Amino acid sequence: MRITRTGGGHGRRTATLATTVLTASALLLTGCSSDDDSDTDANGNITLTVADFGQFGYKEAGLFAKYHELHPKITVKEETTAVEQDYYPKLLQQLNTGSGLADVTGIEVGRIKEVVDTQAGKFADLSKTINVSDWVSWKEKQATAKDGTVIGAGTDIGPMSLCYRKDLFQKAGLPSDREAVAKAVAGGWEDYLKLGEQYKKKAPSGTYFMDSASAMYNAVVSSSAQQYYDADGKPVYKDSPSVQQGWNLAAEAAGKKLTQGLPQFTDAWTAALRKGTVATVACPAWMAGQISVNSGDSFKGKWDISRAPGSTAANWGGSFLAVPKSGKHVKEATELVKWLTAPEQQAAVFKAIGVFPSNKGAYELADVKNAKLPYFSDAPIGQIYAEEAKSIPEAVLGAKDGVIKDTISNQINNMEKRGTKPADAWKAATDSIDKALG
What we know:
Layout: H1 24-29, E1 46-53, H2 63-70, E2 74-81, H3 84-97, E3 104-108, H4 109-119, E4 153-165, H5 166-171, H6 178-184, H7 189-201, E5 208-210, H8 213-221, H9 241-255, H10 267-275, E6 278-284, H11 287-295, E7 303-307, E8 315-322, H12 330-340, H13 343-353, E9 356-357, H14 366-369, H15 381-389, H16 401-417, H17 422-437
Parallel strand pairs: 1-2, 1-3, 5-6
Antiparallel strand pairs: 3-8, 4-6, 4-7, 4-8, 4-9
Helix pairs in contact: 8-9, 8-16, 9-16, 16-17
């Protein structure tokens, strides 16, 4: 799903930019819809199209096939766009023209505020179908319009952790046990950078402590309730403490050459994972799938997962499923969304690809509660992510969160790769953002 998901938003599933590398099975099972896909045939059979981005995990978990078994007259067809930044403009165009929309459409958390504020009337109200209290408290609030209508059912969230190569840590003389690593960064992302400086002193040739400073920046900002906007909808990113902290840490990481300077989800980033040159990755729940797919079998068991730096929980990413009112089968599509986001199905997706449920009912199911990731040295991810999810702050979202985050991330990359001075990079970022905000 994600394997990406982080598109314009707080992340993958939002992340710096979100893009995804699909598994072979996902590619084989992904299709493109046509105007006739939603028509009912002579025997009363219908096809529901689900448009999403990255890797939502429904194919991998076998859920579309299972739904067809439960509802023989309904076939579900998935239409996937790998990169969320390609997906979202197309979705807006379809909403504005009123044509080409799927029966069910995915919306990334970094876009949900803008959709709620400007397009809510074009989606079915899911509050009459789903029980909003089933989700973590802040999740459905993100998809709730001023009139109380809920346009999106939560799929996943992105509680934060730290993914690291324990073999590289050992070679660099650093602690490699996950509890020891957690202790080493317990003071926060400042401690993480100190650990990076230690790593650099004895780093195995050709390796880097982190993939990108922009990823760390996003993790820092994601731990704060106030990020880019205030509660009144005013952009406050220039004065936001979390943005300032994240920017300063990113500038420090770039200046000390602790990063390989690879924007996540780019070809160069996936190549670095495959070659094994990255020692740590800021790791929301869905990122584990990205790493395992791109690193490949040769690095299985060499990765591990520890708690995220610091004591403040963070959420990076997460998405929603929405039902356009213009669909030919709104009732059936709504029932599909309800089923896909129920605890059992979210647990199945978590088991299949590691994205963490937003439905609290899934947390006590065995596939979540007892989950371990063999690829990551049997890390107890069910426990790690569930504990993190309990204390994630309710972030204030803004209409242009994605634009702001992506613009800042691009300038952080310029500091890493081009040596742009922090003051110049910040000015370039703010000038571009102010122009975009109007």
